[in-house]
Amino acid sequence: MVLLQFGDEKLETLPDELLHNEQDDEAIDKESENTQYDRTAPEPADKRTGAELLNEHAKDKMSVDDALKMATWIFIGFRRKLNFTFLELVQLAAAARDVFMKEKQLVECGLPVTIFGDIHGQVGDAVRLINIAAWDPANPNSRELDLNKQHFVFCGDYVDRGNRQVETLVLMFSLKITYPNNVHILRGNHETRDINYKYGFDTELHGRYDEDQAKKLYDVFNEVFDHLPLACLIGGKVLCVHGGISTHLHTLEDINKAGTSCVDVPKTIPKPLSNINVSLLAQDLLWADPINGLSGTKPNDGRGISIHFGEDALDEKMTELELIAVIRGHQIPGNGYAWFGLKGHLCTVFSASDAGKKENYAAAIRIDEQGVKKMLIMYKGRRFPGDTEGTKVHSCEHLDNNVNDDVYAVFKEEEMIYKKIYICEIN
């Protein structure tokens, strides 16, 4: 069990050595919100470094009890930077990789489930949303957070941009180790070397560890990322990915196929996947974006990789795959979530607040045993966000989508700025 944090009340005192020397407010780099693919990203000096280091720690990898303790520290101290040692992070990564290595590229889970979008190093937003999602209303005074009672799907982008990236990975990996059958950690486009060397992850590691340790941790974490699954099928009918659909996806089992020839490789996905350039299908699952008013698909020039797809292409693909909904991250809706198109078969969800140049809410989606969807919306101020859904995030090209997403409202009071959770039911 993880213990809940109530307000400013401390459940226990964090060890002094766990508190990082430099403490600052949780923040995110808004200048890098328009992520573009960089095909000229440098190759690591030694690709084997991360794998070899994790193999060396196979016997002393972190135990479930120690992983649970690390998760508890995050829940207690999510407002602080925590000083996890180099050895602790390597042992945690070794244990997490062992779990991910046993999974296919497409994992499956049942109901009830809560689905999270991009976190981008804002571990405080993740903790607050998990607290609400896992809280048991039948035992309102209980401090116990039992993740065995439902499923949790995280749709990628844990690193870059925010300044609590290490803490975010500790939370994700420790929860996965502790609840391997209930917590599902998907890969985002930022969990690749091509992106996270440029948008903040490498920089954070070098700012918190010495040169040698930072380089090794960068390789270690990216080695784990290579084993993350790319998709989750919920109840056999709802597909979760980070990016979007693909013209190369004809059956859900295609996600699990590894190519055996040069002809097959672009349409299949090896696991582990260290270079997404070998798989067009993987590129789409990580990078594709929906766009209103488009018929079919077209190259995603704003991203520099993958495709844009219209509602007709989405409907055709959902019929082919026998799906009823697609849930993804990758874009920043003003209200934290946005339904795409007229039929509402796809929902974009984003779980990091104030991540764009325009302030946005953070959100997660809960689907109960009956399939009823509820949005958990975390926002600032004293008023509910209202009925608008920030749908303009899907209305234009990626480079302009946040500039033109003006249908949301953030209610900010200078004298009282705090987080709240608003729960609304979507029929």
Helix-strand layout with pairing:
Elements: E1 2-3, H1 49-56, H2 64-76, H3 86-101, E2 106-109, E3 113-116, H4 123-134, E4 144-145, E5 151-154, H5 165-178, E6 183-185, H6 193-196, H7 201-208, H8 211-225, E7 231-234, E8 238-240, H9 280-287, E9 289-290, E10 297-299, E11 307-309, H10 311-321, E12 325-328, E13 337-340, E14 346-349, E15 362-367, E16 373-380, H11 398-401, E17 419-426
Parallel strand pairs: 2-7, 3-5, 5-6, 8-12, 9-11, 12-14
Antiparallel strand pairs: 1-4, 3-15, 7-8, 10-11, 13-14, 15-16, 16-17
Helix pairs in contact: 1-8, 2-5, 3-5, 3-8, 7-8
At a glance:
By secondary structure, the chain is an alpha/beta fold. It has helices at about 50-55, 65-75, 85-100, 125-135, 165-180, 195, 200-210, 210-225, 280-285, 310-320, 400; strands spanning about 1-5, 105-110, 115, 145, 150-155, 185, 230-235, 240, 290, 295-300, 305-310, 325-330, 335-340, 345-350, 360-365, 375-380, 420-425.
